[in-house]
Structures are given as C-alpha cells and as structure tokens.
Amino acid sequence: NGVETTFHSFWGQFGWMAIPMPVNVYRGFVLFVLGVLIGAGLFAWRQHWPRALDGPQRDALIVLTVTAVFVFAAFVLYNRDFVQFQGRYLFPALVPLAALVAVGLTGWITLVPARFSARFPVVNWLPVAALMGLAVFAWYALDTYIVPNLRSW
Q1: 116 Cβ contact partners less than 8 Å away, ≥ 6 residues apart
Q2: The pTM is what?
Q3: How many helices (H) and strands (E) in the chain?
Q4: What's the Cα-to-Cα distance from 103 to each of 48, 112, 150, rounded to whole Å?
Q5: Alpha-carbon distance 33 to 107, whole Å?
Q6: Selection from 16-30, 59-73, 82-96, 111-125 with the highest mean pLDDT
Q7: How high does pLDDT run on average in the chain?
C-alpha cells in the first residue's frame, strides 16, 4: 500500500491526497517508468557506461546517485516513525531522477542504426518529444483533475 500511495502521489494525487487521478493514468506512468529503466539499461550496455565517462562526469554521476540514495533512505526512515507515504518527500531527488529519465529515453535511441538516424535526424528528438508529452499531460491534469475538484472540497 505504501509503494502504491507514494507512486500515485509522486505523479499526481491532489487536494491533500483526496483527489487521485484514474487508475489508467497511473498504469501509464508505470509503463513510462519501466520504459525509462529499460532504456537506462540499454544506454549503459550500448555505451559501455559508466566506464566510458571521464573523471568529472563520473564524479557527477556519483553525486547524483548518492543524492538519490540519501533521499530514498530518508523517506524510508521517516516513514518508519510517521506513516506518510507521500511522493512529495521524494522531490529532493528530482534532479537525479530527471537525469535517469534523460538517460533512459536516450537509451532507446541507441537501438536506432546510425545510418537511419543520420538520414532522419528527427529520430534523435524523440526523447524530447516524450518529455513534451509529459508537459502536455501536466496541462491536461490541471484542467481535468485539479481545477474542477478545487470547488468540491
């Protein structure tokens, strides 16, 4: 129950947790997260990552990883005493999570042959298009779930 509530509230559960989005929306976000994780694995495998990083890049990766680990550890420890499975407590890890999303979406592009992406460079912009889709969804969620329910509570 805690993982589900945290996941829902991280992606969008509004009005002091009283206004969730439909279950299908969260299922879509589960697929997105799985796609990002698989894509990150593809990127790491195809780019020989993190061995291919130079010193400062590796240091930045370590800082981002340690930040994410500390935020998740603090979340778990906090919830041992005060049961509040709210995704907002994971927001300090947004920068490392955003880096993971960028790597994960880029990982799918590594499957495209270089000849094809050179001939059709728009393919290289598909990760950006996916992120624009998230921005459009944020507008949709505001208009569909948040604003109409502001009056109800």
Answers
A1: 123
A2: 0.86
A3: 7, 2
A4: 13, 15, 36
A5: 13
A6: 59-73
A7: 91
